[in-house]
Amino acid sequence: MAEVRVLSAEDVAQVFTIADAIEAVEEAYRQKAEGKGRAWPMVYEAFEPGVADMDIRSGELAGSGLFGLKLTAWFSKNPAQGLPEIFGTTLLCDNGTGAPLALLNASAITGLRTGAAAALGAKWLARADAKNLLVAGAGHMSTFQVAAVLAACPGIEHVEVWDPMRAEAPEARVELMRGEVEKILSAAGIERGYEIVAVADGELACAAADVIVTITPATDPIIKAGWVRPGTHVSAVGADMEGKQEVASDVLREATLFVDDRAQSVSSGELEVPVKTGAIAEGDIAAELGEVICGTHAGRASDDEITVFDTSGIAVQDLAASKVAYDRALERGIGTTVAL
Ligand SMILES: NC(=O)c1ccc[n+]([C@@H]2O[C@H](COP(=O)([O-])OP(=O)(O)OC[C@H]3O[C@@H](n4cnc5c(N)ncnc54)[C@H](O)[C@@H]3O)[C@@H](O)[C@H]2O)c1
């Protein structure tokens, strides 16, 4: 019999903040670079292509005594029945005994840990004097990207949000986002000055940006050749399945490339299509970000370099983040214990 702690989205939200996510994901990347964290091949199945699918991302975080998985199920017809479009569930297991420890609603963690990944790319690879952030994509995940970069990079003062699918600036979306970002930051006790504005012209916004985060499901790159000025850092986040690519191959070719996981980046991340078409080679990847965090590989080499960090999302992020939520929930008696 195993005692399993079950945590709802509300339980997780009580104990887990953006600051926790940044710390946990940094620790997960570090463990991966030290050989204590491993991401296993993703399992993907489309029940009805373009309508309903699921993926399972699994791995081990030996430094935290864990292995486990996150199952994300996307059923696009659900909202018509009053159900969420996405169900995310994380299972944590003890890597010494195999016993299941916790089952968590992953929704309260996914946005924060995904934002944390992009923010760590900016923290470790952007120029030290970076002030202007462009977030390309104005959907559900974009709020977390803005909040996480603001939390991890104290120098960022000005944020522009662009929706590549709209000719006009996403004013209404940004109005909502301002409140959502402030809520995420204040839950972590972060107070800082910044402004967030909606913009309509992606090319102009790229030319002014020191840091660009892409967070769309684009299959035709939205960041075009010639748009990214020397010295810019790009965190490419949206490409998490085969066929997606947000940054033009020409930009990738002139950039120094960092990834969260080499194998996944070229099998289902931002670099999958450019490697398959021969625009770049897998050997062009400079390092995993964890190697930069550990100091075993250099990060940015000069203020003129373009750096790109591809994060397609790996299980160690979810495991490390969920472990923090689990430990806090145990301490504070939050959640339900089930004997399995
Ligand atoms: N890397 C990770 O760990 C990770 C985690 C979660 C989500 N994602 C990915 O991030 C992306 C965005 O997720 P979301 O929940 O914010 O989506 P969303 O649907 O809420 O928002 C998508 C945004 O991109 C724009 N868009 C839609 N189709 C586009 C296209 N073909 N070209 C350019 N822009 C387009 C939309 O107008 C919107 O602004 C998705 O691809 C999702 O799978 C990645």
Plain-language structure description:
- Strands 1, 2, 3, 4, 5, 6, 7 and 16 form an 8-stranded mixed beta sheet that branches. An 8-stranded parallel beta sheet has the order 10-9-8-11-12-15-13-14, sandwiched between helices.
- The protein is globular and about 60 Å long.
- The chain has 2 domains: 131 residues, ornithine cyclodeaminase, domain 1 (2-Layer Sandwich); 188 residues, Rossmann fold (3-Layer(aba) Sandwich).
- It has 11 helices and 16 strands.
- With 340 residues, the protein is an alpha/beta fold.
- Helices cover 35% and strands 26% of the residues.
- The model has no long low-confidence stretch (mean pLDDT 97).
- Strand 8, helix 4 and strand 9 form a beta-alpha-beta unit.
- Bound molecules: nicotinamide-adenine-dinucleotide (NAD).
- The site of nicotinamide-adenine-dinucleotide has 22 residues, from helix 3.
How would you summarize this macromolecular structure in one to three sentences?
The chain is built from eleven helices and 16 strands.
Based on Cα principal axes, name the global outline: globular
CATH homologous superfamily of the largest domain, by name? NAD(P)-binding Rossmann-like Domain
Task: Report the oligomer.
Answer: single chain
Q: What's the β-strand tally?
A: 16
Beta strand %:
25-35%
Count the domains: 2
Ions and ligands: nicotinamide-adenine-dinucleotide
**Alpha-carbon distance between the two ends:** 6 Å
Count of alpha and pi helical runs: 11
According to CATH, the fold-level topology of the largest domain is: Rossmann fold
Overall pLDDT metric: 97
The largest sheet is: 8 strands, mixed
Question: Low-confidence runs (pLDDT<50, min 5 residues)?
Answer: none
Helix content: 25-40%
- CATH classification, class level of the largest domain: Alpha Beta
**Which class of secondary structure composition applies to the elements?**
alpha/beta
Which architecture of the largest domain does the CATH hierarchy give at level 2? 3-Layer(aba) Sandwich
Rg, Cα atoms, Å: 19 Å
Order of SSEs? EHHEEEEEEHEHEHEHEEHEHHEHEHE
